[in-house]
């Protein structure tokens, strides 16, 4: 899954991700299925650790950016 915070500065990137990944690209943490691997785009800032812990609670894993 790609968790993506969409705003005016990244609309084109979000639209491209949505076109490629379809339903696996979401703006809402509540839509992440249990046991998912999640790539967080702009949505991880500024609360990376909180998001990581929240995802762990449903068995999911946040993939860190390299």
Summarize the structure.
With 66 residues, this protein is of the alpha/beta class. Helix content is 32%, strand content 17%. The chain has one domain.
Task: Give a structural overview.
The protein is an alpha/beta fold and 66 residues long. The protein has one domain (2-63). The protein has two helices and four strands, in the order βαββαβ. The protein has helices at residues 11-21, 48-57; strands at 2-3, 25-26, 37-40, 61-63. Helix 1 links the parallel strand 1 (2-3) and strand 2.
Q: What is the tally of beta strands?
A: 4
Count of all domains: 1
Look at the structure and give the mean pLDDT.
88
Question: How is the biggest beta sheet arranged?
Answer: 4 strands, parallel
Strand content: 15-25%
Count of runs of 4 or more consecutive helical residues = 2
Sheet with the most strands: spatial strand order = 2-1-3-4
| Helix share bin | 25-40%
Shape: globular
Task: Give the helix/strand class.
Answer: alpha/beta
Radius of gyration: 11 Å
* Helix and strand element order: EHEEHE
Low-confidence stretches: none
Q: Termini separation (Å)?
A: 17 Å
